[in-house]
Design a protein that fits this description.
single chain, mainly beta, 8-stranded mixed beta sheet, 3-stranded antiparallel beta sheet, 2 helices, 2% helix, disordered N terminus
């Protein structure tokens, strides 16, 4: 087992506020793990999707319907709920701040009348900054998966923040925050436990990617679809008020590099893996393949072994990677 990279770590778990802006003004190799043996309380939207493993252990995913149309993705805001979980919805713990930060103007990639947005036309914050000081470590120690990072992206770039006045993104979202290091330290169960019922997602960090960056729920401070409205950088990230760089979905730089049938790209803070899954022709699943927490139980490649376990799945559709906690949040 490799020792974690030396880091300056927080004593407590990572606890952060949500992002906002003013309106006008490579992972280590870890030991193998066992599958989730807790009862599966999820309810699939359909039972037509399937995952099989060939004799050589190859994972083969088959999805229910066609791939998502990236030019007419549904805006997720109407699917944000504080009362409970449902397929395609995001179950949040608060009703949002109507005066909160974020994009102050809808970009031309949004069609609010039709309720859709065009990912292929969305503006990104300019810049391509490297972070050679970025650090991430992950080890399995008994029944715990111990993860630590300094919050900066390992192997990926960021945009230039604050957003410059001559950046086209400035016309829609004037994020005034600066990216800084943010100590992250969390111990997650190797074998998570399913909850009796789904639980809501708070603002701030609800998971971590294997490039060391925090995952926030896919809404801004007003509970709008953050991926559709806010302007992030070319890797779909941006900083919040205290400088914590984060993503609201599985970012394009990670998602597009994950071309296999099963790539664990991170972990939610209940311990369940977050997986980029693809069919034989390279398509991600859609909401029709997933349950109310945006996950499913199927074979995945985890810690060097194919195991059957519950996991969250990356999609192009809202809520993008998680809809609620399937298990018990521990961080």
């Amino acid at each position: 087992m490799r020792s974690p990279v030396p880091l300056v770590l927080a004593v407590a778990a990572f606890a952060l506020t949500a992002c906002g802006s003013t309106p006008d003004a490579s992972s280590t190799t870890v030991a193998s793990t066992t599958a989730d043996t807790s009862p599966d309380t999820s309810t699939l939207a359909t039972d037509s999707s399937s995952t099989t493993t060939a004799a050589d252990g190859t994972i083969v995913n088959t999805w229910v319907g066609p791939a998502a149309d990236l030019t007419t993705l549904p805006i997720g805001t109407p699917h944000v709920s504080t009362t409970g979980a449902a397929v395609g919805n995001l179950y949040v713990c608060d009703s949002g701040n109507p005066n909160g930060g974020g994009a102050f103007k809808a970009g031309p990639w949004l069609d609010e009348v039709a309720g859709t947005w065009d990912l292929t036309q969305k503006v990104s914050v300019q810049g391509a900054l490297d972070w050679p000081m970025a650090q991430y470590s992950e080890t399995v120690e008994g029944d715990l998966r111990v993860i630590a990072s300094n919050g900066l992206p390992v192997g990926n770039v960021t945009g230039t923040f604050p957003v410059a006045a001559d950046d086209p993104a400035f016309n829609y979202d004037r994020n005034p925050n600066t990216i800084g290091e943010s100590a992250l330290s969390v111990s997650l169960p190797v074998t998570p436990t399913a909850g009796a019922t789904p639980t809501c997602l708070s603002k701030g960090a609800i998971g971590v990617l294997r490039n060391g960056v925090a995952l926030f729920a896919p809404v801004d401070e007003r509970n709008r679809d953050a991926v559709a409205y806010e302007t992030q950088d070319q890797c779909d990230g941006h900083p919040q008020q205290t400088g914590v760089y984060h993503y609201h979905d599985i970012p394009s730089c990670v998602r597009d590099a994950s071309t296999g049938a099963s790539t664990v790209v991170g972990f939610a803070y209940d311990g369940y893996p977050i997986v980029a899954e693809r069919s034989a022709n390279g398509d991600l699943p859609t909401n029709a393949d997933l349950d109310e927490c945006h996950g499913r139980t199927s074979p995945i490649l985890l810690d060097g072994e194919v195991v059957t376990t519950y996991h969250y799945s990356a999609t192009y559709e809202f809520p993008y990677f998680i809809g609620c906690f399937h298990g018990t949040k521990v961080a």
